[in-house]
Amino acid sequence: MEETDMLVSNGLMNILEEGSEEYQLIKNGFLRGMGFMGHVTNVMAIHKNNVSSSLARQARFDSFMIFSKAVATKCGGDPNNVMRYAWYGSSLHNLKDIVSLGFQNDHYHHHDHHQSHGVGVTLFSSKFSIDSAMCTREDESGLRHVMLCRVITGKMEAVAGGSKQSHPSSTHYDTGVDDISSPTRHIIWPAFINSHIHPDYIEGKIPRELWIRDVRSIVGDALLHQVISESSSVNVQFP
User: Fold this and answer.
1) What is the mean pLDDT of residues 81-107?
2) What's the pLDDT tens digit per position in 110-135?
3) Are 215 and 37 in contact (CB under 8 A)?
4) What pLDDT band is residue 107 in, cutting at 50, 70 and 90?
5) Residues contacting 224, CB < 8 A, separation 6+
6) In Å, how far are 99, 143, 231 from 53, measured between CA atoms?
7) What is the rounded average pLDDT for all residues in the chain?
8) pLDDT at 215
């Protein structure tokens, strides 16, 4: 039994209907963030976190919402203004563990292509799903998987590439980003990885014809992000 099937059979996740508005919204948002790779990527399935499957999981979600209200109060605004959707890519095994048990220290990204912006869990802006896709690994069926999460970003601070920062520089800040004006990466500090991130969906996909990593090695980061930015000029609003 595949690991996504196990999540469904255990009641931890539900399969979204392909024709549903929710499915189409998430699929189209992901493909838009893939830029010119969108037309060679197939979304095979989307699974939704079933937070009501147990008291513990419901409590984790309730705790996340309480933290969002607390951060919003600190920042003087609405909870919706301190939360964003962001993508996290890894192996399916890691994503299953995250849905089941939460984030751990070994879920930090350490890939060669990933320039560190501090120590913590790195998620990628909803408009840059291609970056999360580059952190994935094929499962036994040849599929790659990404996770769409709700993230409490609060007051963000810029963190330089190569930094070893592992906590806010002051109580004024909550999370880190690579670029304040147009963030691609969101860095959630170790102390907040389970209070400020809630996994909502796991999406399985197949990139065809071209490998994302090969494209990046050929055109480089600057051109890749320029092309994606131009094709992702419309903000994606997830449910």
Assistant:
1) 89
2) 544 447 888 999 999 999 998 898 88
3) yes
4) low
5) 35, 130, 215, 216
6) 12, 26, 38
7) 83
8) 52
Domain extents in the chain: 3-231
Question: Most distant CA pair in the chain: distance in Å?
Answer: 49
Contact 189, 121 (CB under 8 A): no
Sheet containing 41-49, strands listed edge to edge, beginning at the edge strand earlier in sequence: 13-15, 41-49, 197-207, 144-152, 83-90, 121-125, 185-188, 175-177, 156-158
Q: Is the Cβ–Cβ distance between 38 and 27 less than 8 Å?
A: no
Write a three-state SS string for 209-235.
CCCHHHHHHHHHHHHHHHHHHHHCCCC
**49 vs 208: CA distance, rounded Å:** 27
Domain spanning 3-231, CATH class: alpha beta
